[in-house]
Amino acid sequence: MHLTTVVVRNVFRRPARSALTVAGVSVAVAAVVALVGIARGFERSLRAVYESRGVDLMVVRAGSTQRFSSVLDESLGEKIAATPGVAEVLPGLAEVVASEDGDMTGIVVQGLPLGPGPLGRLQIVSGRNLQPGDERVVLLGRILAQGLGKQVGDMVEVVKGHAYRVVGIYDASNVFENGSMILTLKDLQRLMGRQGEVTHFTVITVPKDRQSVEQVAERIRALAPNLDVLPMREYIETSVEIRTARAAAWLTSTIALIIAAIVMVITMLTAVFERTREFAILQAIGWRQRRIIQMILMEAVLLAAAGAVVGTLLAILLTQGLARLPQTGRLVSGEIALDVVLQGFVLALMLGIAGGLLPAWRAVRIAPTEGLRHE
User: For 289-336, how does the pLDDT look when each residue is reduced to its tens digit (9 = 90+)?
Assistant: First the structure.
């Protein structure tokens, strides 16, 4: 009989124990794929915001622990615009607020300048865009509008005690923007008491080759003290918010993996103990120890692979469900990258191998004569 056939039969011979092992692995894989996938998805969404605008460099205050806490003088934008190699510079102000409407926290409010820049590129699906002379009006992303239950003409509290009229709802190609609200830069500065201040400048350079972009970055750094001028990708990857999301995802996933490893070892050890007589007979009829180790490891890997499949499906269902909820849909895209799924499978297989090594070693350490007396 082929070894693979023996392995499959052994797995199905103990359905309850096999199911317990698969369940433990599936929970761990689901945690990895879902949490890491959500963190990666949010990072991709944030990156897509600036990529769609053609942004090459981000200018922020050096030493800011969080990107939203950066404070720059708005007048710096004129100096940046006059820098050789700069094709376009736009100021931006970002704040995170909690809305009384819908009891939603962590809503990003963007303050953008009027003109043909980011505001001009918005796809308005209902109402109109922001216009010169507008005051106390706001645009809502499609997902945020659904979560708040707001339509064009409704009032929404941007911050407590300050209600703004919704004049338009826009649809973007990424979750981050669809879950945000937008005011004119001047309106948000006035609301937050930050007249003349911005959190960042986005810079588009010409030409866009790496050396030219780095040269432009050096020129901008020389304009004022304590400036961080970062390539767009580095700006996102090094942000505290993104790093915290990654760390939290991996911390939770690691705990789940450790628990799954313990479950795997315990269940495999129990299975080996119950099959002591079987292993003794196999050795007595000529099976080499290496073949017995191979059989046990194959059983563990098969269970781990089954757990990876179930866990991945659970993760997909979970993220899809979160993407449809008003409270989380503005942060979770529901899409999981293929590399995250592959990462989950690799970790599951490593879990299977690690969980099968000790039981396999225990199985071949038993002398055949002793094993045959086992009841």
Answer: 777 777 878 888 888 899 999 999 999 999 988 888 767 777 787 788
Q: Hey, what are 368's tokens?
A: 């055949």
Render the burial of 58-86: b for 16+ CB within 10 Å, e for the rest.
bbbbeebeebbebebebebbeebeebebb
pTM for this predicted structure: 0.76
Phi then psi for residue 238, to 5 deg, are -95, 0
Can you give 159-190 as a three-state secondary structure string? ECCEEEEEEEEECCCCHHHHCCEEEEHHHHHH
User: Do 308 and 345 meet the contact criterion of CB atoms below 8 Å apart?
Assistant: yes
| Residues in Cβ contact with 207 at an 8 Å cutoff, skipping those fewer than 6 apart | 85
Rounded Cα–Cα distance for residues 374 and 224 (Å): 80
DSSP class per residue in 192-221: HT-TTEESEEEEEESS-SHHHHHHHHHHHH
Q: Is 158 helix (H, G, I), strand (E, B) or coil?
A: strand
Work out whether strand 104-112 and strand 181-184 pair parallel, antiparallel, or are unpaired: parallel
Distance, in Å, from the CA atom of 182 to the CA atom of 164, rounded to the nearest integer, reads: 11
Determine whether 153 is exposed, middle or buried from the number of CB atoms within 10 Å of its CB (0-12, 13-18, 19+).
Answer: exposed
- Rounded Cα gap, residues 305 and 297, in angstroms: 12
Q: Is the peptide bond before 207 cis (omega within 30 degrees of 0)?
A: yes
Tell me whether strands 72-73 and 197-198 are parallel, antiparallel or unpaired: antiparallel
Give Cβ neighbours of residue 46 (< 8 Å, ≥ 6 apart).
Answer: 174, 176, 236, 242
State residue 160's pLDDT score. Answer: 83
Contact criterion met (CB below 8 Å) for 348 and 304: yes
Tokens representing 268? 């495999």
pLDDT digits (tens, 9 = 90+) for 185-211: 999 999 998 999 999 999 999 988 989
